[in-house]
Structure prediction request, 92 residues.
Amino acid sequence: MPITKLEAELRPRARERIAQGLLPCETPSKMWGGPGSGQPCALCDKPIKSNEMEYEIEAFLEGRAQSLRFHVLCEAIWQLECARDDYLKKHP
Prediction:
């Protein structure tokens, strides 16, 4: 399956942030979508502009609930890497 340059850059970043505990791999307890708030994306660190769709999730990191925001593509890549991580743990 072809992969875009952006995906090729973001997938390793997602794996790294998951490994560092900066992004969870559990299903979010809550998730919302709407126009971008200008806050930085939890994966790419770029602001999510008001003309872009933003996903906000509630996740537990370091023992407390935190809000994380993602661009649509970044959220999909994060979920893909979580699924990949889960698969690799079950099929070493």
Observations:
- The chain has two helices and three strands.
- Residues 5-85 form a domain with the first zn-finger domain of poly(adp-ribose) polymerase-1 fold (CATH 3.30.1740).
- The longest strand covers residues 53-61.
- Residues 72-90 form the longest helix (19 residues).
